[in-house]
Design goal:
alpha/beta; D-Maltodextrin-Binding Protein, domain 2; 7-stranded mixed sheet; elongated
Length: about 300
């Protein structure tokens, strides 16, 4: 393997990803014969067959699968080196794989839109999930950065706060509790709740609220969607704990009402996190720095926009 070239590794990885020498050739703008020849060169040098044919497709053998991880590592390292050298010239480009908890979908696209105005050369791959899913994806290296509430203390992550993250207890304006002057957790005993699925941040907050009061929560409906929670609360199915950033527009329009529950709003922070052991590339550093420098500003502008829209 000592004489394998970067170009050969590119052809090998492209062939695995596309499942076809012909498709790999199209992607790399060479002939299929050139791809076959270079793959044969790797096979001759390693002494292993790297592909087996399955109909019109090719699939990696056990040896090919073993080589694949190393090939990706080499190509990624070269890409990262190139990005670092470009950053020394003042050019920031590349790709950042960003994950965010579901609640953050109401703020992250707005922050990234502002980011793109400053760094148009950086492309963002964005995925959402609940707290548990995003933390797991970050730990496995499936994403490089994550926007969430405070990560678990025992995780191998480092996180920096960038904005205030209030959580509210909300209800329909027609709910019997909507006119109450003040409420305690005991006043909520037996009241129907609409909750996110287990593993989400707001679900954990709701469970802690009732657990601290040694009371059971009456959960009328569970869903994995903040939008569904909002619609169910507006329909009168129950009350819910939600991020203020999730319900800003509905509160401004009077479609939802904040309940005056003791201890609320719960003030937390938004964090941008990454693995401690992962070296950040220039694009990642710019994303993290932008969240910290401008995240709160973008969120405040968004809230002001909701208020102006409600006044029209």
């Amino acid at each position: 393997m000592r004489n394998v070239t970067v170009r050969q590794l590119q052809m090998f990885v492209a062939s695995v990803d596309s499942g076809s020498f012909t498709r790999a050739a199209e992607l790399l703008r060479v002939s299929p014969a050139a791809v076959s020849f270079q793959i044969k060169q790797i096979e001759d040098g390693s002494g292993f067959s790297l592909f087996e044919r399955i109909g019109k497709k090719v699939a990696p053998t056990e040896a090919g699968t073993a080589l694949l991880g190393y090939a990706r590592t080499v190509l990624q390292a070269l890409h990262d080196a190139d990005q670092s050298l470009m950053a020394l010239r003042g050019v920031v480009s590349g790709r950042a794989n960003l994950g965010a908890v579901s609640t953050a979908k109401y703020i992250v696209p707005h922050i990234m839109a502002r980011f793109q105005q400053t760094y148009p050369g950086v492309s963002i791959d964005l995925r959402f999930g609940n707290r548990r899913q995003i933390t797991t994806a970050l730990a496995r290296g499936e994403i490089e950065l994550a926007v969430m509430g405070r990560p678990p203390d025992d995780s191998d992550l480092t996180a920096d706060p960038f904005a205030v993250h209030p959580s509210l207890m909300v209800a329909s304006p027609r709910h019997p509790l909507a006119a109450a002057p003040i409420l305690t957790t005991h006043d909520l005993a037996g009241v129907a709740m609409v909750a996110r699925e287990e593993g989400s941040g707001t679900r954990l907050l709701m469970e802690k609220l009732f657990a601290d009061a040694d009371l059971p929560a009456r959960i009328a409906m569970t869903t994995d969607s903040n939008e569904t929670v909002k619609q169910a609360v507006m329909a009168g199915m129950g009350i819910a704990v939600l991020s203020q950033h999730t319900v800003g527009l509905e509160l401004a329009l009077g479609l939802l009402k904040t309940l005056p529950v003791e201890g609320f709003p719960v003030m937390r922070s938004w964090f941008v996190a990454h693995r401690r052991a992962m070296p950040l590339m220039p694009a990642h550093i710019r994303v993290c720095a932008f969240f910290q420098a401008h995240g709160q500003e973008v969120i405040d502008d968004l809230a002001d926009g909701y208020r102006r829209a409600a006044q029209r």
